[in-house]
Amino acid sequence: MLSSDVKRELQAVVGPDDVRDDPESRLAYSYDATPMYQSMPDGVVFPESTEEVQAIMKIASRHRIPIVGRGSGSNLSAGTVPVEGGLVMVMTKMNRLIEIDQDNLTATFQPGLITKQLHEAVERIGLFYPPDPGSMHVSTLGGNIAECAGGLRGLKYGTTKDYVIGLEAVLASGEILRTGGKLTKDVAGYDLTKLLVGSEGTLAIITEATVKLLPLPEDRRVMVAHFTDLYAAARTVSQIIAERIIPCTLEFLDQGTIRVIEDYAKIGLPADMAAILLIEQDGPTSVVERDIERIAEICRQTGAAHVQVAQSREEEVQLMSARRSALSALARLRPTTILEDATVPRAAIAPMVEQINRIKEKYGLQICTFGHAGDGNLHPTCMTDARDREEIERVEQAFEEIFDAAIRLGGTITGEHGVGLAKAPFLEWKVGKSGIEVMKGIKRAFDPDGLLNPGKMFAKETRRRVVIT
Amino acid sequence: MKPVEEKPIDREEWARVGEYLRKTLDQDELTHCMRCGFCLPACPTYRETGLEQASPRGRLALMKAVADGMIEPDAAFADQMNLCLGCRACETACPAGVQYGRVLEQTRAGIALREPSSRIVRGLRKLFFKHLFPHQHRLRTLGWWLTLYQRSGLRWLVQRSGLMRLFPEHLREMEAVMPPASSMGVRERLGEILRPEGTPRGRVGLFRGCIMDVLFTETNCNTARLLVKAGYEVVIPDAQRCCGALHAHAGEEDTAKRLARENIEAFRDAQVDWIVSNAGGCGAMLVEYAHHFKGDVRMEEDARWFSDRVRDISQLIADVIDDLPLKRLERRVTYQDSCHLRNGMRVNQPRNILRQMPGVTVVELFESDRCCGSAGIYNLTQPEMSKQILDEKMTHVKNTEADILVTSNPGCLLQMKWGIRRAGLEHRMRAVHLVDLLMEAVE
C-alpha cells in the first residue's frame, strides 16, 4: 500500500481514479508474460501526459519510490515485474498516434499505442513500419522500444532500434530529455536515442517517439521447404544469403515442434522431417518472383525433400499455418510454457539446435525449437509445470547450459526478449566484467538513486558458467 | 475504488468463499494461462476500462491468487468477476486454450455462497433463477400477463402516465422495445410432432428455450417450420426445461445441473437424431452438458450422447440451403455475432447462409465478433457497462447503412432492438433473428 502522503500527492497529479493501491489492482500489475515471476507493487498509477509523468517522477524521486514503466505487460524477461515494490507506471492511457509525416516519412506517437495500430494506420496510406513482434496485437510501442523488440522481419529489415530516430523521455530527476528528431543523419554527441532503445526502463520513461517509415512493399510471396536433415536446412539458410538474397522472413521449425503442431492441428506435416523452413520475400513483383524461384531452386539443390511455393493468398495462409500454430500447439501441451530466445550467428544454427537437443536429453525435458533462422534467433521452448519444483530445477539448469552453448557459438543470451530479471544473472557472460561496469556507469549517470526499474538487467550475483562435458 | 469498511460478518462470509474456491477452482486451468496477454484486445471490459484486473488475464491472476492463498476474495474481487460479460472472446484468442468460461463459472459459484450485497441484484437473481426460468408453466403465465399488459392498453397507460419514470432508464428503454409476449408457446401452437416435407432427413428435437418461447414464440415457430420445409421431422418434447446457462454463469451450479439432467432425459426419451437450438446462449450451454457431468458415472454417457447431437439451427440449414425455396430479398443486411455461438459453439454458418440468400447484400459489421453487452442478464445487472458497449456497437451498426441487422440469439436480438432505439435508427433499420429472415424469404 502507498503511504497516505504519497497517495495524496499522486492523486493531486492524476486524479483519484488513476492512482490505485487496492489488493486487486496491485495483484493485477504484479506480473507480466514471463512464467514464474510475480511481485506486488505498492501502487499503480496511470499518467495521461508527459507533464503528469514528470510530476509523478518528481514525487517518486523525493520519496525514493521505485518506478516500473509498463505497457501491456507482454514481455518475456520479467522486465516489468516490480521486484522491489514501488509504483507501476502504466502507460496505456498515453496511446495517441500524434502524426504521420508523409514528407519526412516518419510517425510520431505516445508510448501506449498498440504496435498493430501503428501498422494499420501507416499501411492504409501505403507506408510500412517493419518491426513485427509476435505480440504486436497486444504489445505497446513503448514496450517495443524499451525492449528493442524484434520479430519475423528482422533479417531483411532489422529491429526496433533501426527505426527509432527520435525520443522524448522523462529522467529519474523528473527532467525531460529529447534525443534525435526527424533526421536521418545526426552525429551530435553520443547516440542517446539508440542507448534508450532496449534500455528496459532502467534509464528513463519514454513519453514520445518518432520512427522512420518505409514505402509499403509492392508484393510478397511465401514458400516452404521440408528437410530430412538438419544440416541441409541450415546450409540452405547460409546458401540463400551467400547468393545475395535477403528474404524478409526465414523461419525455422525443428522436428519436435513439427510433431507437436501436427498432433495438435493435423495440417499434414510430415513427422519424419528434421526441419521445415518457411520463407517469405517482399518487394517489387518482378524481384519477388525472381527471388522466390531462385530460393526454391537452392532448396532443391541442398536436398529439400519437398518444396512448395504458394500460388494464392489462401495457400500462403495454409503454408504459414504451421508457424502460426506453433505457440498454440506447444502451449497446450503442458501447464507452463517457457519461451526462450538464445541467439547465434546464422551459420551456427544447426550446431545450436543439436546442442539444445543434447541438453534436453541430458535433463530429460521436453524442449522444442523454432524461430527466426535467417537472423539466428532461436526460441527453444520448454513445456513444463511450474508446480513441479524438481523439474523446474532441471529446466533452469538446462537453460543455463543452452545460454552457455549459445555464447560458445558466438551468440548471445537474448536476441529480442531482453535481459530483465530472468536473464540478469547471465548478462556478464555476454558483455564481460568491463561491459557490466560501463553499463552500470551509464545507469548511474541517468538514475543516480537507482529508482527506475530496480533489480533489472544487473543481477546481485552472476551465475557461474557451466562446463559442458 | 474506495476501501470500504467491512463488517465482521462480511469477513466471515468472504473467508468461506475463499475456502470454497481453494477447494474447487481448477488449478490446471489456472496454471495453463501463460499470461501472454493475447486475450487483452479481445476483452470488451478491458477495452472500456483499460484495467488489467478487468481483463481475462487479470481475472485469471486474481482467481489464481485466491486459489494460492495470496489474497482473500472480497467485494472488489466479486465486482471484477461480475463485470465480466462471459462472452468468451478471450477463449478464441487464447493460444494455450484456457477454458476461461469454466473457471469463471467456478468462481461465481463460490461467490454465490455469499448473499449478493445489492438488494436489486439479489431480488433479480432470485426472481429469474429460482422462480421463473426453471418453471415452464410460470413462464407461460408470465407470458399471459405480459400479453395482457401489452394489449389491454395498460402498457399505453403506464408509458403515458409517467409511472415508468419510477424505473431506471435502462429498464424503461428495454421495456419499450420488448416484443409482444405470448402465453402460447411453440408446442401449444404447432403440436408435439411435425411431419417433414419432401425427402426426410432425420428427426430433430427442438429446444424451445425459456425466454425464447415467451418473447420470441414466433421465432420458435419459424424454426420448426423451417426445419419441416428442409425435410426434418420435428419433435418438441414437453418435459424439456431451461438450458441452465444463466444459472451456470451466475454460479448457481446445482440448479444448472438439475435442469441439464431433465433436458437430457427429455430428449433421450424422444429418440432424436439432433437437438437443435436457435439461441447461441442456450446452444453453448447444451454442448457443454458433457463437461458438466464429467466423472458422474450415472450421467456421463447420456450427457455425451446429448452434447454430441446439439446443433445450432444454422448448422442444419446451411447443409440444405440450396434445396430451400427462397425468393429474392433485395435487402442490405449486416450480422452481429452471438458470442456464445461464435466462441462457445464455434459456429460460423449464419454468415454463409446470409451470403447464399438470393438478393441479399451482406455488409460486414466492424467488430461484429465483439459482445453487444447483452450477455444473459448483464444488461440488467451492469447497465452502465452494457450501455457503454452497446453505444459503441451502434456507431458501427450505423456505418453499415444496413436495412436489417441479423442476430442468432434472443438476448442479442433484444439488445440490438434496444440499441437501434437508443441510436434513433428505428426508421432506417430493424433487428431480426436469422430464422425469421429466412422464413420471410421462404415462398
UniProtKB/TrEMBL annotation, chain A:
The keyword Signal does not apply. It holds the Pfam family FAD_binding_4. Its cofactor is FAD. The keyword Flavoprotein applies. Coiled coil: none annotated. SUPFAM superfamilies: FAD-binding/transporter-associated domain-like (SSF56176), FAD-linked oxidases, C-terminal domain (SSF55103). It comes from the Bacteria. Residues 37-216 form the FAD-binding PCMH-type domain. Keywords: FAD, Flavoprotein, Oxidoreductase. PROSITE patterns: FAD_PCMH (PS51387). This is FAD-binding protein.
TrEMBL record, chain B:
The keyword RNA-binding does not apply. It is an enzyme of class 1 (oxidoreductase). Signal peptide: none annotated. The keyword rRNA-binding does not apply. Residues 23-54, 74-98 form the 4Fe-4S ferredoxin-type domain. Pfam families: CCG, Fer4_8. It comes from the Bacteria. Its cofactor is [4Fe-4S] cluster. It catalyses: (R)-lactate + A = pyruvate + AH2; glycolate + A = glyoxylate + AH2. Its EC number is 1.1.99.14. Binds 2 [4Fe-4S] clusters. Keywords: 4Fe-4S, Electron transport, Iron, Iron-sulfur, Metal-binding, Repeat, Transport. Component of a complex that catalyzes the oxidation of glycolate to glyoxylate. This is Glycolate oxidase iron-sulfur subunit.
